[in-house]
Design brief:
about 300 residues, alpha/beta, Rossmann fold, six-stranded parallel sheet, 8 strands
Length: about 300
Amino acid sequence: MRIVSVMNYKGGVGKTTLAANLAAEIANGGYRVLMIDLDPQANLTFSFYTVDEWTTDIRETRTIKRWFDGEVGSLGELVLTPPRVNEVVKTNAGQLDLISSHLGLIDIDLELAAGLGGTTLAESKRRFLQLHGCLAEALQAPAFRDYDVVLIDCAPNFGLVTKTAIVASDFVLVPAKPDYLSTLGIGYLKGSVDKLVGEYNDYIDHNPRGEPTGPRIRPRFAGVVFTMTQVQSGQPILAQRTPMENLREVGIMPIFDATVRNSPRYFADAGPEGIPAILLGNVNDPVSIELRALTGEFVEAIVGEGSAS
């Protein structure tokens, strides 16, 4: 199982659209995929369920907020199998499951932060590791052993909920529009992740009581994928190529060769179908072609020995 956090500090970069279409295309290739929606906006959830369905059937009993609130014993109790998209992917023996978000998830960061600290250094470190590692521990349960890929759609911040995703992850995928503002914070994001990893592993390595507290973590950056590009003559326009080339030259993290052009059909509010556009579009549609190319490159980066260039 490969666990991947999809995140960027900057909103409006097509993060959730990318996560939904990647997950759908991977599942359509015959894999078992689990999506976890950690963004309080719940757009990933609403890509597969209507607001009415969520309000009636999911909100009170089947969201990850209930797990963070301690109202369910196992994260596996919250797994949903969206029916409409699975009617498509099951023909290729795939499966696409989801753990739904909740609008109230925005308050969980403060509640988790209240659990940090302690009367002694040892107690503070124990609580730090326990809180930051809670999602990683939960995903070790037998209910998740058969998944090939777990995609976590993170909120555009670096709060405690997002940090639990990073600690649980093998890889981090960073969607970005090819403009100055969208690429500006990528170096800062990498620094934040590196700092969290360093602090977490330091607490693991220097536990005052010498108690086993879990393995060290090593999430790697799968890379930056440029989304919502404006294409002219088969390549992004000059104004977008400049920030793309600048980021590649800086070498902060890998950059995927595949890019995904802007399209109102893909990068828009989810419709009532509950099926990502990659599974509905014409196979020769340029965006579908680009998303399939990205999916292949992404799977190779997280499963094979390769990585983004």
